[in-house]
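Friendly challenge for the regulars: who can give me the structure tokens for this chain first? No prize, just bragging rights.
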Amino acid sequence: MAKKAKKQQQPGGTPATVALTAAGTAFTVRSYDHDPASPSYGEEAAEALGVAPDRVFKTLVADVDGELVVAVVPVAGSLDLKALASAVGGKRAAMADPAAAERTTGYVRGGISPLGQRKRLRTVIDASARTHATICVSAGRRGLEVELSADDLAVLTEAVLAPIGRG
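First reply, four minutes later:
Bragging rights claimed.
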């Protein structure tokens, strides 16, 4: 049974939405009732919001040669760690320790946003994001997404766009 999406909220509740507002970037906040038992936060968001899974992007934190790096990839696929390492000039990548990711970004797992992080990390966005007028990424809390253009996200995060997604 599909969850009902909540009415759109006014921006301003998380560091991500504060950063977007301060930058004057056009975005829409989209929220839904998060189910703690959901096995995939991203797929849950896509279904609840009625958005194609290739337009909803998950924010993952990886360790590339000892440096934490943010990867933004469609929830419909997975992260290619080798491609991520290559995109930032590294040799080896592995998923970061969840506690280190939470501590460094200031967000909880399942709600990590590429925007408004406690410590700005190098960011790579999957190149497929540019095939959509807008994409959705976490707004910094489970059950809360922001919809914006991939180009705006890249500018605000100083990201590189590269083919880092699989599937």
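Residues 153 and 159 are 8 Å apart (CA to CA). The longest helix spans residues 15-23. Your move, everyone else.
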